Amino acid sequence: MQRAHYHHGDLRQALLEVGLELIAERGPDGFTLREAARRIGVSHSAPYRHFADKDALLIAIAEAGFTELHRLGRAASDLAGDDPRARLRAFGEAYLRFAAEHPSQYRVMFGRAISKPTPALREAGDLAFGLLEAQVAEVLGRVDVHDLAMAVMAGVHGLAMLALDGMLDEHGERSRFAALSEVMLSLLDAGLASAGPGAGTSSRVSPAQTR
Fold this sequence. Notes:
Elements: H1 4-7, H2 11-26, H3 33-40, H4 54-79, H5 84-101, H6 103-110, H7 119-140, H8 146-164, H9 175-193
């Protein structure tokens, strides 16, 4: 059966959604564009109007994820007001919430399924990380904070992956992730508060480049 949104001509969006479904079921390496086309109900050649191959579809899924992560992080920070620490914490909460609500997309964004990231994908990743870096800079009142921003990123990413891999809720207690998120963000906040004036310098490397 063809999907309703495809009848409106949005095959590209249908492929993105079906791609995420197949990733959730089989992982990024466990499906083909041919299968995506069959699930939507279009010809096997139809996906190639939008994506040269499956890797191009995965790149589009990851790029959309980074763009959405940036949007959600910006919105959460703006709602938190003018206090830099509150804004950074709101970004962290939005990040962890995104990972929990979009596990398949998150795995593509930070996994190894994409062999050759495009400039557009790197730009989207840099935009999301740049927001985090800017907020760490606001908290500390200086600009040389790349290492510290990467440390914050490592903390929230590590917690997100533990949750996605089922390492936290041994008894199905989903509240465990929320509780540990609170602990993690409090530790990061305390760590930044005690960061010395010389911490945080390095050459720039964004998460989208560490594949």
